[in-house]
Amino acid sequence: MTTEEQLANKFERLIKDHMRREKLSALSMRELARRMTDAGYPISHGTLTGIRNGRSTIDQRTMDSLCAFFGVPESYFWLPRRQALLLGRLADLDDADLAAVDQLISDLHSRRTGRAER
Predict the structure, then answer these.
(1) Which of 7, 23, 30, 91 has the smallest count of CB within 10 Å of its CB?
(2) Measured in whole angstroms, how far is the alpha carbon of residue 61 from the centre of its chain?
């Protein structure tokens, strides 16, 4: 799988998660571009279509816009699939849930290393 195809797959998951969160049955790249632009992240539907179809890479500005709009870190696009999926799911959590996840991760690290984290 090429880098562009991997990027397209991860972008597709972000789109599907966004549609689920927003309760949308369909979302064109033209509509997504409008939503992103309205949110302060101007982007063309052609750019989004190229990414979605695995025909293009993305520059840093586009990466920053995608990450900000979808609420994921840049590492989402470069991490192995499982870690990326977990990071994507964190975007839906509120502060209390994020604190619980943070505590769970600390507990898991402590258990693995045999000592408490600070």
Answers:
(1) 23
(2) 15
Instruction: Determine whether 90 is exposed, middle or buried from the number of CB atoms within 10 Å of its CB (0-12, 13-18, 19+).
Output: middle
8 near 52, Cβ under 8 Å?
Answer: yes
Residue type, 3: T
CATH topology (fold) of 3-91: 434 Repressor (Amino-terminal Domain) (1.10.260)
pLDDT 10s digits, 4-13: 888 899 999 9
- CB of 61 closer than 8 Å to CB of 9: no
State pTM to two decimals. Answer: 0.66
- Alpha-carbon distance of 3 to 77, in angstroms, equals 10
